[in-house]
C-alpha cells in the first residue's frame, strides 16, 4: 500500500505550519505501507492543482491531507467535506473567495472514505487526544478534503481519501493568549502514525454510506 500524506505550508504570517512539520517527520513506512509526502500551498485552486499532480505522480492507494486548526484541543479526523469556499482571511496570494463552490456542479458534500472512528480509537488508546470532527471549516483545509474526495469519486475510484486537523504546535502557542490549546509536534507525529496504522488495518472504512460501518 502507498499512502500520500500532504501538509500545508505556513499561512497567516506564521513561521511554521505544524501539519507540514508533522508530515515531514513521519516514518517512511508505517504498518507496512509506504509513506510519500507533498507540500501544498495555502492558495485556493493551486492547492488542488498540486494535489492532483501528486496523486498522479505517486499513484497512491490512500491520500491523507493534514492541516492546522488553531484553537482545537485534539487531533481531529474530518468526517465530511462540503462544496463551499468562504474564507475569513485571504490565502497566501490574497484570494478570499466568499460563498463560492469548490467544484461547479459537484455534490454538496462528500463523506470521508477513511476509518475515522477507528483512527480516533487508535490514537486515544495511545494516550493521544483525538476526536472525530464534523466540520472542516470553509478555508483551504475543507477545499482540500472536498477536492481529494472529488478525485476519488470522479477519477480514482480505487483510492481512499480524507483529512486530519492538528492543533497549534506548542511553540506557536507561546505568544498567544494564555490557555491556547496546543500539542508538541512529536505528539502529532505519534497521533498521525496511529491514524495511518488504523487506515491500513481497516481497508473497508467505517463511515456509514461509504461502504462500511459507523460506530
Summarize the structure.
The chain is α/β, with parallel strands linked by helices and 215 residues long. Helix content is 31%, strand content 20%. It has helices spanning 18-24, 46-58, 116-125, 140-154, 170-173, 185-201; strands at residues 2-8, 29-30, 33-40, 62-68, 76-77, 80-82, 109-111, 160-166, 168-169, 182-183.
Your description of this structure?
The chain is an alpha/beta fold and 215 residues long. 31% of the residues lie in helices and 20% in strands. It is built from six helices and ten strands. Strands 2-3-1-4-8-5 form a six-stranded mixed β-sheet, sandwiched between helices. Strands 6-7 form a two-stranded antiparallel sheet. Strands 9-10 form a two-stranded parallel ribbon. Helix 5 links the parallel strand 9 and strand 10.
Evaluate the radius of gyration.
16 Å
- Mean of pLDDT: 94
H-E order:
EHEEHEEEEHHEEHEH
Across the major sheet, the strand order is: 2-3-1-4-8-5
What is the number of helices?
6
Q: Helix/strand-derived class? A: alpha/beta
Shape: globular
Secondary structure: number of strands: 10
**In percent, how helical is the residue content?**
25-40%
Strand content: 15-25%
Query: Spans of 5+ residues with little confidence (pLDDT < 50)?
Result: 208-215
Largest sheet: 6 strands, mixed
Report how far the terminal alpha carbons are from each other: 25 Å
Amino acid at each position: 500500500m502507498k499512502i500520500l500524506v500532504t501538509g500545508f505550508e505556513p499561512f497567516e504570517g506564521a513561521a511554521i505550519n505544524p501539519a507540514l512539520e508533522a508530515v515531514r517527520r513521519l516514518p517512511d513506512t508505517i504498518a507496512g505501507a509506504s509513506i510519500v509526502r507533498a507540500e501544498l500551498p495555502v492558495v485556493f485552486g493551486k492547492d488542488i492543482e498540486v494535489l492532483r499532480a501528486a496523486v498522479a505522480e505517486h499513484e497512491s492507494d490512500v491520500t491523507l491531507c493534514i492541516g492546522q486548526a488553531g484553537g482545537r484541543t485534539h487531533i481531529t479526523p474530518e468526517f465530511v467535506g462540503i462544496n463551499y469556499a468562504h474564507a475569513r482571511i485571504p490565502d497566501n496570494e490574497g484570494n478570499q473567495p466568499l460563498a463560492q463552490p469548490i467544484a461547479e456542479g459537484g455534490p454538496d458534500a462528500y463523506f470521508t472514505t477513511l476509518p475515522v472512528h477507528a483512527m480516533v480509537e487508535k490514537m486515544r488508546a495511545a494516550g493521544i487526544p483525538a476526536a472525530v470532527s464534523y466540520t472542516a471549516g470553509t478555508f483551504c483545509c475543507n477545499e482540500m478534503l472536498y477536492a481529494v474526495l472529488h478525485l476519488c469519486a470522479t477519477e480514482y475510484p480505487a483510492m481512499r481519501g480524507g483529512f486530519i486537523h492538528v492543533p497549534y504546535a506548542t511553540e506557536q502557542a507561546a505568544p498567544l493568549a494564555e490557555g491556547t490549546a496546543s500539542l508538541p509536534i512529536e505528539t502529532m507525529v505519534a497521533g498521525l502514525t496511529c491514524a495511518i496504522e488504523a487506515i491500513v488495518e481497516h481497508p473497508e472504512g467505517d463511515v456509514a454510506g461509504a461502504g462500511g460501518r459507523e460506530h
